[in-house]
Structures are given as structure tokens and as C-alpha cells.
Write a structure and sequence with these properties.
Blueprint: H1 2-17, H2 24-45, H3 47-53, E1 55-63, E2 67-70, H4 72-78, E3 87-98, E4 104-116, E5 122-135, E6 141-145
Parallel strand pairs: 1-6
Antiparallel strand pairs: 1-2, 3-4, 4-5, 5-6
Helix pairs in contact: 2-3, 3-4
Amino acid sequence: MKKVVILFLIPLCISNCETKIKSKQELEAEVYKAESNFNSLSQTKGIKEAFYTFADNNAVLKRENDTLIKGKENIKNYYSDIKFKKVSVTWKPDFVEVSKDGEMAFTYGKYIWTVTDSIGNKKDFKGIFHTVWKRQNDGSWKYIWD
């Protein structure tokens, strides 16, 4: 009788204990949503807060003159500079790709960097961004390269 109960419980446990494997499309949708939330936070809370919130602890930014800003806290310090007070940025990915194992992804698309001068005039700078994302232990996505 014990053997019958065990044989019945093993498949039940396996089916209930299995984690659902997400499809490539579901993972790509998650990354696209992370990009969208990242952009939205930039609009509502500012560049510093957005780039800090969505950064992996070991994230790296490549900025002007090929400067590398390494680490989440250094990214926050970088965007604390007064020169970013009158700057905004918007972007949207044109492409999302997720690795086969679902742990890494990259996106690219267009951005608009808007600078407001001291008398309120705005000037737009357009470009292409490329971001590398890493899936976190909690299932969220954080960028590791931007």
C-alpha cells in the first residue's frame, strides 16, 4: 500500500513543484515592459532615479568620451551632477532579444535626449541606444550595460 501511495504522490509533487518555463515571447515581453517602466520612471522621477532603480549592482554605463561608470552607486552619483537637472530622455526599444536560457537579453532603439537651457529653450539630441539586461533572482530585469 505504501508503494502505491508513493507512486501516486511522486508525479503529483513533480507537477506541483515544477516552475513554469516561460516562452521566448513571454520573456521578450517582460524585457520590453522593463524598458517601458524604466522610461516611465525617467519621466516621472528623473534620470538619476530611473538609472539607479533599474541598474544591476554591477551595471556599467558608457558615456561621453568613452567614460565607463561602474556600479549602481557610481551611476547614481554620476546622474547627481547639476548638469542633469535640466535634462530629460525618452526612448523606446525597436528590438528585443532574449538568450535561450532566459537569463540575459538585449534591446536597442531610438532615444531623444532633451536639454533645457537657462531661458527655457529646448534642444533635442537623437540617437540609438543599446542595453544589455540580466534576469534577477526575483525574476525582474535589471540592466548591466547601457
